[in-house]
Amino acid sequence: MARYLVSGGAGYVGSHVVLTLLDAGHEVVVLDDLSTGHAGALQEGVPFVKASLADRAALDEVFANWRFDAVFHLAALSLVGDSMKEPLRYCRENLSNSINLAEAAVKAGCMKYVLSSTAAVFGVPREVPITEAAPTTPVNPYGLSKLMMEQALAWAESAHGLRSACLRYFNAAGADPKGRAGEDHEPETHLIPRAILATLGRLPPLHVFGTDYETPDGTAIRDYVHVMDLAAAHVAVLPRLDGGSVRYNLGNGRGSSVREVMAAVERVSGRKVPHEDGPRRAGDPPVLVASSARMMAETGWRPRYPELDRIVQTAWEWHVKHPAGYGVRQAA
Ligand SMILES: NC(=O)c1ccc[n+]([C@@H]2O[C@H](COP(=O)([O-])OP(=O)(O)OC[C@H]3O[C@@H](n4cnc5c(N)ncnc54)[C@H](O)[C@@H]3O)[C@@H](O)[C@H]2O)c1
């Protein structure tokens, strides 16, 4: 049994990472400031430190109170649109908070660090599926902030021996099939929950951005990876760190168009997805699909829930059972 620190463990992906670690019999401590996460996403019996990663003293205290075998760093600002409006804030917070955690870990002798990175480090790819060899040319400050941290971690390995795994997630989707956690973002910007919430009448009709892409049905194609598969990748990657730092692209390896996602929601729910077609959104590439071949070859990881209908079904069940997400919503 090992003990792990999960920053952002009250958030969407983080809460599923926590469940996966607990299921594997490990001890977990969650650090989160609840800025976008939820107290209701915390698991009973898991020590919780309510603090910001900006607070170095709080971080030192956490590492003084527990010894960790590795840290999983998920806490971040992660809205691409907001990052375009507040580039300096995104770069400052995502980079300095991630560095605070890395410095505190190194100081305490915890030399394994798993970073939640993103497909956004690649910007508009020249080729799909996107491999680790693709050029990293982010087209928004969010992607840049993650790329800067990836680069800082490379230097931290050579100078301090801190071994890192940068996991470039594509689109996290779905919910714990046992119903213990799910997605609750405010605002919700992801396609699958937006399509589900529109179908449930909790959001306005789904806006389809672009129907004239050079794709089979004209809508944009993305790679949706089940959030429990992402979580499992965090455990699968750890043994690799014994040999040094790694970077992996993490996706389902298959793309689904907006229309295909809507059709999956309709099959799962038995209802029509209210929607309206509109023009493309600036900066949206037609196709973003990961090659996770390296991750699979080097760690043995495989997606357990690759089918779009299964991904949508777990998300649908979560939203139906949690009409107010994790808590009571304020009236708009
Ligand atoms: N959801 C996706 O599809 C996706 C895709 C690619 C990458 N990622 C990355 O995965 C990570 C998790 O994403 P998510 O969708 O679960 O986001 P989320 O907003 O649901 O979770 C982030 C968590 O971090 C906490 N947090 C934020 N700033 C903090 C701070 N300064 N100190 C302490 N806690 C703080 C929030 O309260 C929240 O609980 C992020 O780093 C994101 O960039 C997510």
3D architecture notes:
The chain is an alpha/beta fold and about 325 residues long. The protein has a domain of about 180 residues: Rossmann fold. The protein contains 10 helices and 14 strands. The strands form 4 sheets. A 7-stranded parallel sheet has the order 3-2-1-4-5-6-11, sandwiched between helices. It has a 3-stranded mixed sheet with strand order 12-9-14. A two-stranded parallel sheet has the order 7-10. Strand 1, helix 1 and strand 2 form a beta-alpha-beta unit. It is globular and about 55 Å long.
Question: TL;DR of this structure?
Answer:
The chain is built from ten helices and 14 strands. It is of the alpha/beta class and about 325 residues long. The chain has a domain at about 5-175 and about 225-230: Rossmann fold (3-Layer(aba) Sandwich).
What's the topology here?
Elements: E1 3-7, H1 12-23, E2 27-32, E3 48-50, H2 56-65, E4 70-73, H3 80-85, H4 87-108, E5 112-118, H5 141-160, E6 163-169, E7 171-173, H6 191-199, E8 206-209, E9 221-222, E10 224-226, H7 227-237, E11 246-250, E12 256-257, H8 258-269, E13 275-278, E14 287-288, H9 293-299, H10 308-321
Parallel strand pairs: 1-2, 1-4, 2-3, 4-5, 5-6, 6-11, 7-10, 8-13, 9-14
Antiparallel strand pairs: 9-12
Helix pairs in contact: 1-7, 2-4, 4-5, 6-8, 6-10, 8-10
Bound molecules: nicotinamide-adenine-dinucleotide.
Q: Class of the domain at 3-173 and 225-230, according to the CATH hierarchy?
A: Alpha Beta
Beta-strand residue percentage:
15-25%
Topology as a string of helices (H) and strands (E)? EHEEHEHHEHEEHEEEHEEHEEHH
Please name the CATH topology of the domain at 3-173 and 225-230: Rossmann fold
**In angstroms, what separates the terminal alpha carbons?**
45 Å
The protein's oligomeric status is: single chain
Biggest pleated sheet:
7 strands, parallel
The CATH homologous superfamily of the domain at 3-173 and 225-230 is called NAD(P)-binding Rossmann-like Domain
Mean pLDDT: 96
Low-confidence runs? none
> What is the radius of gyration computed over CA atoms, rounded to a whole number of angstroms?
19 Å
**Gross morphology:** globular
CATH architecture of the domain at 3-173 and 225-230: 3-Layer(aba) Sandwich
User: Which compounds are bound in this model?
Assistant: nicotinamide-adenine-dinucleotide
Query: Roughly what percent helix?
Result: 25-40%
* Spatial order of strands in the largest sheet: 3-2-1-4-5-6-11
User: What structural class do helix, strand and pairing data support?
Assistant: alpha/beta
Tell me how many strands there are.
14
Number of helices: 10
